[in-house]
Design brief:
The complex is a heterodimer of chains A (about 200) and B (about 240).
Chain A (H helix, E strand, L loop, with lengths): L3 H10 L7 H13 L1 H18 L1 E2 L6 E2 L5 H4 L4 E8 L2 H10 L4 E5 L17 H8 L6 E5 L4 H13 L6 E4 L15 H9 L5
Parallel strand pairs in A: 3-4, 3-5, 5-6
Antiparallel strand pairs in A: 1-2
Helix pairs in contact in A: 1-2
Chain B lengths: L1 E15 L3 E8 L3 E7 L5 H4 L7 E8 L7 E8 L1 H5 L3 H17 L7 H13 L5 H15 L5 E5 L8 E4 L5 E4 H4 L7 E2 L12 H20 L8 H15 L1
Parallel strand pairs in B: 6-8
Antiparallel strand pairs in B: 1-2, 1-4, 2-3, 4-5, 7-8, 7-9
Helix pairs in contact in B: 3-5, 3-8, 4-5, 5-7, 7-8
The chains are: A alpha/beta (about 200), B alpha+beta (about 240).
């Protein structure tokens, strides 16, 4: 009923996050109906991106330039290094516009269950970067989960030998959050890290 | 459809598919039981599924031997209490990993469930590390490998007990153990009822329970102690050296 090329296209689209076979079929049909305006530009964009996007050897960010535009920027503060789990976190922090230092993308978190150890992440590389005498502070911006915090404690131990201050993002009440809707854990952590006003 | 409701402590979460997860709980009346959780990675559910959290669980399946699925609601977030303390966090991970790897499925162990809850509560206090050793001794007992630390295995003496036999798991008094002391394990004073909780005693306690967990439980399955348990002992070794 469906040609092998279309089947193949649907199969590939269904591998994207958030898409199953049914939504992949809809997406494939939409692409085929908008061949000139969407399908061809998309295929060209995909080919181009696969060709030119590389991993930054400094921070492990993805960019068309190597080192990436963040690492190559002289306007940034070379004394601060922000450690994030993956590139989506780097983008989220960049979107705030309030951080002007450099980044280090770990590529995951330590997880005994999934067999992810320090050597599977870029932790040894981070220790080398933190050893640079220009670095004053390492900000650990990892998720407030068990795995994220285990990784944060591990990094903090690894960086003890470096002459840098190791800090961590605060945990607590989100902006616009209502106290009676917060879970006990977040509230307890917010209480522990209260500050004078 | 078979269904039950119980309180449970989250022991492990394994991602399954794009959004789901297989969650292992230590429940009060149904022992360790696993189930599938729909949307385990969603922002709403992710916080509930941190290991060590106490949840109210509804499990349902077509048959007893099926994986089944869970509907979970957070009762108390113990993970949040320890997340900022590296050693407490490792101890929580270690307790959950040990319970997950050693307890049989669908076999009630109310003593271990209550002991684990007490351990989670103790993390807010100062003497949590001694509580942790008592918890591991309780786990060994529940698994059928209880230690007898009340009298000397050689002489029957109840005084001056400072060693433990690595073979029998029984206490050995100072005079009886003198000639074998290199091969015996140290018995920390707090396990004899003394109120002494030095870091060295905690490390000796970890070595003691670690020895029996490894040789009587994990070696039977040709495996090592769980990684968080090894990391916990390593942290005390480092503290001793510092």
């Amino acid at each position: 009923m469906i040609g092998t090329e279309i089947e193949h296209l649907i199969k590939l689209i269904s591998k994207l996050p958030g898409l199953g076979p049914r939504s992949a079929r809809r997406a494939a049909l939409h692409l085929l109906k908008n061949r000139e305006s969407l399908m061809l530009p998309l295929s060209q964009a995909l080919g181009k991106a696969a060709e030119v996007i590389v991993e930054c050897p400094e921070c492990h960010n993805l960019d068309t330039a190597s080192p990436c535009s963040i690492c190559a920027s002289p306007a940034r503060d070379r004394g601060i290094l922000c450690v994030v789990e993956d590139i989506a976190d780097l983008w989220a922090l960049e979107k705030t516009g309030s951080y002007r230092g450099y980044y280090h993308v770990l590529g995951g978190t330590l997880s005994a269950l999934d067999g992810v150890g320090p050597d599977d992440l870029s932790i040894p590389h981070l220790a080398r970067r933190a050893g640079d005498e220009r670095v004053r502070e390492v900000i650990i911006a990892l998720n407030a989960t068990i795995d994220g915090q285990t990784t944060a404690h591990y990094i903090s131990d690894c960086l003890q030998a470096c002459n840098v201050s190791v800090t961590q993002l605060a945990h607590g009440v989100p902006i616009g959050g209502q106290i009676d809707y917060l879970d006990d854990g977040t509230l307890a952590t917010a209480l522990k890290s209260r500050k004078a006003i | 459809m078979i269904q039950w409701q119980d309180s449970g402590i989250v022991l492990s979460v394994r991602p399954h598919g794009e959004n789901g997860g297989i969650v292992s709980l230590l429940t009060a009346s149904h022992g360790r039981a696993a189930g599938y959780v729909y949307g385990a990675t969603s922002t709403k559910t992710r916080g509930v599924l941190e290991i060590g959290n106490l949840v109210s669980a509804t499990w349902q399946a077509r048959a007893h031997d099926q994986l089944g699925s869970y509907a979970l609601e957070l009762e108390k977030s113990y993970a949040a209490d320890v997340i900022s303390d590296a050693v407490r966090l490792t101890a929580l991970q270690s307790a959950c990993a040990l319970a997950d790897k050693t307890l049989p499925e669908h076999e009630a162990h109310p003593a271990i469930f209550n002991g684990t809850l007490a351990l989670m509560e103790s993390f807010q206090g100062e003497l949590w590390d001694a509580s942790y050793i008592f918890w591991e001794i309780g786990l060994l007992k529940e698994l059928g490998f209880g230690l007898d630390l009340t009298r000397c295995v050689a002489t029957g003496a109840v005084e001056d007990l400072i060693y433990v036999s690595p073979k029998s798991g029984c206490a050995v008094s100072a005079p009886a153990g003198e000639i074998y002391k290199e091969r015996l394990l140290a018995l920390p004073p707090f396990l004899r009822g003394e109120a002494r909780f030095e870091e060295e005693d905690i490390l000796n306690g970890l070595k003691l329970t670690g020895h029996f967990l490894l040789n009587r439980v994990f070696s039977l399955a040709n495996s090592n102690l769980p990684e968080p348990r090894l990391r916990l002992e390593e942290k005390y070794v480092k503290r001793q050296k510092a």
